[in-house]
Design a protein that fits this description.
Length: 60
Amino acid sequence: MSSLPRTPYFAKIKADGSFEIKDVPPGKYKIKAWHGFLKNQKGKVTVEAGGTATVDFTFK
């Protein structure tokens, strides 16, 4: 069983907690943030052509 995501669009967080997923085609997406000890977080994002999108997650 593989632990890799079923999509080519994923990232690991940086030391400051940020992440970046490059070259995502324009469209509407559901995004999931996984944490090994805390409850997973989900969100939605729309990526515009040539633009950037932001999703914030808070783990407690």
